[in-house]
Input
Amino acid sequence: MKKILLITAGILMFGLSSRAQEMQYLFQGKDGKSSVSGFAGIFNEFSGFDGDFAFSMGGGAALLINQKFFLGGYGMGLTTRHLQDYTWYDKYLEENVPYYNLYTRFGHGGLWLGYIHQPKKAVNFGVNAKLGWGAVTLTDKLYKDYDDGWYNYMSDNVFVINPELNLNLNLLKWMRASFGFGYRWVTGLDEKYAYEDPNLGIIEKRYFKEDAFNSFTGNISLAFGWFGK
Output
């Protein structure tokens, strides 16, 4: 009986001491308070595609917690021209058919999250990551001499991971410039096409190398929002 009373008393004392402690949160500031604001930005990304220079543009928006942590979404699209030639085997004609100057398009979007170290300093550093889904397509005008319609000859769904280190410049309370350096992994490139080899017969080959879109990235961005809150 004494043991039960002692255990009960111990539980009550532990409960009273726990109630005296202030609740803590992962994203609370030093004073125990949290601030929530937001921002939106535009991206200019320099990277590579299968050994060629590539340029992409995009934008994003995010919630900013305590001026340090942010979570939002982004979208990005390739703007430089990358033309590809392919020869496909047409099973109805039973012969190879060449296709020239097909445009390579690459777009993706998804989650955008990051951390800013010492955000109140005029010059500060941060890290961020873009985790997105998208597609790589080969496209061309369906009837070049008659209209401007475009036709996708191939589309391959991909997943993109792009972590980045940033140098941030607080230009104004509502404007920040960032210079980033990172690396982009693109997974899921597995679509194939078939062509006929005179000696080996019908052969399947990937449209793109598995690592064709993997590349170091450089990013210049401008963000507009509530950075002084």
Notes: The two ends are 58 Å apart (CA to CA).
